[in-house]
Amino acid sequence: MSSDAFKDAETLVEMRDIHMEGRSDEEWHPIIKGVDLTLRKGEVLGLIGESGAGKSTLGLASMGFCRDGVRISKGSVIFDGIDLLAASAEEKRQLLGKRIAYVAQSAAASFNPAHRLIDQHTEAPISHGVLSKEDSEADGMELYRKLRLPNPDEIGFRYPHQVSGGQLQRAMTAMAMACRPDLIIFDEPTTALDVTTQIEVLASIREIVEEFNTAAIYITHDLAVVAQMADTIKVLLKGDEVEEAETREMLSNPKQDYTKSLWAVREFQRPQKPAVQTGTTPVIAVQNVTAAYGKVDVLHDVSFDIHQGRTVAVVGESGSGKSTTARCITGLLPPRLGQISLAGTALPLDYRKRDREQLKKIQMIYQMADTALNPRKTVGEIIGRPVEFYTGLTGAAKRKRVEELMDQIELPASQFIDRLPSEMSGGQKQRVGIARSLAAEPEFIICDEVTSALDQLVAEGILRLLADLQDKLNLSYMFITHDLATVKSIADEVVVMKDGNVVEAGPKTEMFTPPHHPYTDLLLSSVPEMDPDWLTNLLQERGVDNIGDAAVGKMT
Amino acid sequence: MNSVLKIIAQRLALGLLTLFIVSIVIFAAVNLLPGDFAEAILGQGATPEAVAAIRTDLGLDQHPVLRYFQWLGGVLQGDLGNSFAQANFASFVGDDSGVRTTVAQQIAPRFANTMFLAGVTAAIAVPFAVTLGILAALYRNSVFDRAANITTLSSISSPEFFLAYVLILFLAVLNPWLPSLSNIYDGMAFSERLEKTLLPALTLTLVVTAHMMRMTRAAIINLLASPYIEMARLKGIKPMRVIVKHALPNALAPIINVIALNLAYLITGVVVVEVVFVYPGIGQLFVDSVKIRDIPVVQACCLIFAAAYILLNLTADILSIVSNPRLRHPK
């Protein structure tokens, strides 16, 4: 579909010269600096940008809604002839839910835990007087069926915690559709989902939006996702519009440098290192590890090796046992069976029984640098502590070592050594996390989803840094991730996990060339590509019942 | 549902254990009081022989540990012992027929009165405070919210007897609507009883409202930033319904806990109000018994108070657990 198709359609939302401000420390700071937005009936507009670009704020503003501590300081929002900024709270309330609906990022948090799904579904139609309770319930089940939820007649009578994340996200889309609104705001609806789940949700959202000819604003930071969903794409950067164009035009011919840089991110590719010679002792060998939380086994006979100077990517969806394997290696969760060897010698399973020399060789970098760094310590203290603990350096020698480490992570000590974590950006914090792990002079580092909380450009910087450090210091990495693009760019070997089992393992080039194990194949095929026809083609090729969780279900 | 029953059983067992420990503390504390019943009753003219005689008569000369287990054994069989004061009076008048008033007989009517007062107060205060809290959350930071906060805080900050006299002044003296004395007795009609209890109940309502109202308000406001509240607003739900239907069910646990604490206070801590209104509750009996070292009565009262606290907190715990849909409807 081309956006020309909408040129003649009536305008539904017209936002002019929107300026928005957010309050922090008793002062108002600009968040959106003069953005225009026009949406025609039936059109899907993709709103993309990195975190802090103001996408969600702008999306909510198109509903005439501001979160606490945010205000629209200038501009106008006209929805179908109604000036939303001049409208009374009561007038806006009449539109919300009925003509304008919202689908939030985390369905698990956005469904009220105290009520059944169907009761939350029927609430808006009943209170707006659109449908009676019975009609709305019946319609809800029909929508559940259309969105291919399992047991559509029964699932609505469950509470949110009884339903999986991907199903909740579809139930929320159904809820948004309950009054057949003219406009739906999708605020990162698949960001929190696994790839195989995401693809199902994307397919059902797209289908239902087309069927009811609903206009939508689709907010996301994932370019490949927006390419599947949107007719038009608008790129935001720090509250300013960068450019807007029809989807195909935008993908094939971006005009602004910033947009081009976004498109280029996925091009970082590190050549795979040659395979190690047979008979070499691996730095870390995980041997037949079975581990349990309580009485339930969550890892089953997991084995793989990690060799010196190599990166092994461990991929799998949430709950597949990736992080549990890491906990076994570090000794935080002693395995029930099996053993962990470091350079050929078996390690004590419990970290409390390992000596300092063994402890320092295995270090970890965490997903959330925010929570992994002590907010009350300066960068110098955060890095200095393991330096002193593991190497015994104090005073000037310790300071010198800290400065060296900060050089390695490309944060000048003169500028950053006295900063607190709160005074740094996400990427900078993650760099400090890396320096902290390097302070122990390890041989092996576990990187647990280290880039998944970061924007793509920043994430790429971290990946390059990790690759450089590996070459300089001859480090081995275990790279836990669910993002196959990251795997492609950095891994030498890949281990695919599912439900606590290793499904497939081997060198990267082999893993990314067919034939695959069916699960690996599903994972690979579920990663959205920049091609706007990707989802359409995939659905045609495989059929709706052979994607996502439905396909996983068929495997077991 | 089984998991809920299991949790309730665990909590009950823990409650019993707590009560046992409390009984030791009570016994020890009461025995630490300076002087004993013999010295208190004989006063200035006590001779060592007379004191010793009374002690022997009441068994006070036995070892404390032995006395504790005798007492505990009695309590477990439902026998709270005999009041020293009653026993002694009987022996003075030479009518020691062996038929003595037991502590249980002495406490029972008083305790019933206390429960009645607490019940009437709770029936007024709990709905009032929760409604006020909901309205304050709905109109947060408005004039109404501030007025409600200031009024309830002032009333909780004033001494109870002062509140009682202010209410007497306005509701009994200037406008003679309610009786200022609450001399209730057995066999009174319920309506009359209620009328006489109303003034102390209103006084206590003023005392306990602030705490419950502020917790209701805070617990609700605490949830207003959560995504499901934002979702409800974006569905165009009316503000009042957002609070009552979407925030309140998830805010119940802290509210229930504060209600339980205040109800426990109504049972155990209202002696001042009882004195002002001459209300024959358990609080006065307790204070009188401490004065004359009537140890069995003091211990029995303490035990009842402790049991009330434990039981109410237990109920609050269980209700907050049950208010969690994850436990009521397991996967």
UniProtKB/TrEMBL annotation, chain A:
<dbReference type="InterPro" id="IPR003439">
    <property type="entry name" value="ABC_transporter-like_ATP-bd"/>
</dbReference>
<dbReference type="InterPro" id="IPR013563">
    <property type="entry name" value="Oligopep_ABC_C"/>
</dbReference>
<feature type="domain" description="ABC transporter">
    <location>
        <begin position="284"/>
        <end position="524"/>
    </location>
</feature>
<dbReference type="InterPro" id="IPR017871">
    <property type="entry name" value="ABC_transporter-like_CS"/>
</dbReference>
<keyword id="KW-1278">Translocase</keyword>
<dbReference type="GO" id="GO:0015833">
    <property type="term" value="P:peptide transport"/>
</dbReference>
<keyword id="KW-0547">Nucleotide-binding</keyword>
<dbReference type="Pfam" id="PF00005">
    <property type="entry name" value="ABC_tran"/>
</dbReference>
<feature type="domain" description="ABC transporter">
    <location>
        <begin position="13"/>
        <end position="263"/>
    </location>
</feature>
<dbReference type="InterPro" id="IPR050388">
    <property type="entry name" value="ABC_Ni/Peptide_Import"/>
</dbReference>
<keyword id="KW-1003">Cell membrane</keyword>
<protein>
    <submittedName>
        <fullName>Glutathione import ATP-binding protein GsiA</fullName>
        <ecNumber>3.6.3.-</ecNumber>
    </submittedName>
</protein>
<dbReference type="InterPro" id="IPR027417">
    <property type="entry name" value="P-loop_NTPase"/>
</dbReference>
<keyword id="KW-0813">Transport</keyword>
<dbReference type="GO" id="GO:0005886">
    <property type="term" value="C:plasma membrane"/>
</dbReference>
<dbReference type="GO" id="GO:0005524">
    <property type="term" value="F:ATP binding"/>
</dbReference>
<comment type="similarity">
    <text>Belongs to the ABC transporter superfamily.</text>
</comment>
<keyword id="KW-0067">ATP-binding</keyword>
<dbReference type="GO" id="GO:0016887">
    <property type="term" value="F:ATP hydrolysis activity"/>
</dbReference>
<keyword id="KW-0472">Membrane</keyword>
<keyword id="KW-0997">Cell inner membrane</keyword>
<keyword id="KW-0378">Hydrolase</keyword>
From TrEMBL, chain B:
<keyword id="KW-1133">Transmembrane helix</keyword>
<feature type="transmembrane region" description="Helical">
    <location>
        <begin position="297"/>
        <end position="322"/>
    </location>
</feature>
<feature type="domain" description="ABC transmembrane type-1">
    <location>
        <begin position="111"/>
        <end position="316"/>
    </location>
</feature>
<keyword id="KW-0813">Transport</keyword>
<dbReference type="GO" id="GO:0055085">
    <property type="term" value="P:transmembrane transport"/>
</dbReference>
<protein>
    <submittedName>
        <fullName>Glutathione transport system permease protein GsiC</fullName>
    </submittedName>
</protein>
<dbReference type="InterPro" id="IPR035906">
    <property type="entry name" value="MetI-like_sf"/>
</dbReference>
<dbReference type="Pfam" id="PF19300">
    <property type="entry name" value="BPD_transp_1_N"/>
</dbReference>
<comment type="similarity">
    <text>Belongs to the binding-protein-dependent transport system permease family.</text>
</comment>
<feature type="transmembrane region" description="Helical">
    <location>
        <begin position="12"/>
        <end position="33"/>
    </location>
</feature>
<keyword id="KW-0472">Membrane</keyword>
<dbReference type="Pfam" id="PF00528">
    <property type="entry name" value="BPD_transp_1"/>
</dbReference>
<dbReference type="InterPro" id="IPR000515">
    <property type="entry name" value="MetI-like"/>
</dbReference>
<feature type="transmembrane region" description="Helical">
    <location>
        <begin position="115"/>
        <end position="139"/>
    </location>
</feature>
<feature type="transmembrane region" description="Helical">
    <location>
        <begin position="250"/>
        <end position="277"/>
    </location>
</feature>
<dbReference type="InterPro" id="IPR045621">
    <property type="entry name" value="BPD_transp_1_N"/>
</dbReference>
<feature type="transmembrane region" description="Helical">
    <location>
        <begin position="198"/>
        <end position="229"/>
    </location>
</feature>
<keyword id="KW-1003">Cell membrane</keyword>
<feature type="transmembrane region" description="Helical">
    <location>
        <begin position="160"/>
        <end position="178"/>
    </location>
</feature>
<dbReference type="GO" id="GO:0005886">
    <property type="term" value="C:plasma membrane"/>
</dbReference>
<keyword id="KW-0812">Transmembrane</keyword>
